Amino acid sequence: MGSQRNELLSLIEQHRGVQDNITDAVKMSGILPQPTAWASFINSLLLWVGCITLGLSFIFFLAHNWSHMSRLVKFALVELALVLAILAYLKVQIYSVSSSGALMLGAILLGALMAFFGQTYQTGADPWQLFFYWAMLITPWALISRFVAIWLMWLVLLNLSIGLYCDVNGNPLSSIVEGRVSVVWLIFGFNTFSFVVWVGLSQKLQWLQKQWAIRLLATVAGISITSLALGYILASSGPSVLALAVWAVFLSSLYYVYRVRAIDLFMLAGSCLSVIVVIVTFIGKEVLDHGDEFAFLLLSGLVIGLGTGAAFWLKQVQQEAQL
């Protein structure tokens, strides 16, 4: 479908006989979604929104009536809802949207059960342990379901665990690297590793070949390393060679994979945005320290020029991909 769309757009841009019948050509190519496809999308969207809101509303209901319920009632309600979600998963067709939604609801309720247990009996566990053990307990579900959203939820829980662990116990990298080390280094390392593993496994596992999930992981890793580069540029001690070097290596790797080996405009556009932000920040710090009013004009022109150049380059890459 994507190749048909690209071919049609290429013909339109090259003025090859379809300008007068664009509407008919689009209909005949079948690239527009049919009414049945829209109905399926809306049904799936409503199902997902319903499952997630049902789980969250159940948690809010128990939290609001916490003082009016006994321990037995609270745990009975949570466990009953969890069992019903699992039964719904077992009853519907496996690997369907309904089964995935039921499993997502069960994963949410499992976390609620763990939180209520810790709140009721005051186990003294640190907050990071809740999210870590929550991720560990839903790991078998993620393996069985082969569902992308569950795996992304698993990664989010581990990211929260890393951040909360560092808040309580300090950053373990501080003993390796001299000076104060930002927790963002851990977030970047973990998400970059997850991104590489996900892309590698997607070559063999078809259910992992979801472009939106791969791009989401790349975006999180890119935001993390860009934040590190910006943080060290704006630090009073000056930019860190390590942060800028890792940032350059990361973007170079993305360029090689998604420009040389295969073309992905989303990845390239994100890389361009990161380069523009870092360059403007670096130059802005130097020129704004002098307090010159022309510095703002210079930065404005720089942003416009870099943005225009990036857009022109991406357009050329797009045309090359359509050939």
Strand and helix layout:
Layout lengths: L1 H12 L8 H8 L5 H30 L6 H21 L5 H25 L5 H19 L2 H22 L14 H19 L8 H24 L6 H21 L3 H24 L5 H29 L1
Helix pairs in contact: 1-2, 3-5, 4-5, 5-6, 6-7, 7-8, 8-9, 9-10, 9-11, 10-11, 11-12
Can you describe what's shown?
The chain is an all-alpha fold and 323 residues long. It has 12 helices and no strands.
Brief rundown of the structure:
79% of the residues lie in helices and 0% in strands.
Shape: globular
What integer is the average pLDDT?
83
How many β-strand stretches?
A: 0
- The fraction of residues assigned to DSSP E strands is under 5%
Rg for CA atoms = 25 Å
* H-E order: HHHHHHHHHHHH
* Major beta sheet summary: none
Q: Can you tell me the residue ranges where pLDDT is under 50 for at least 5 consecutive residues?
A: 176-180
Could you give the distance between the termini? 16 Å
Helical fraction equals: over 70%
Kindly list the characteristics that best describe this protein:
12 helices, globular
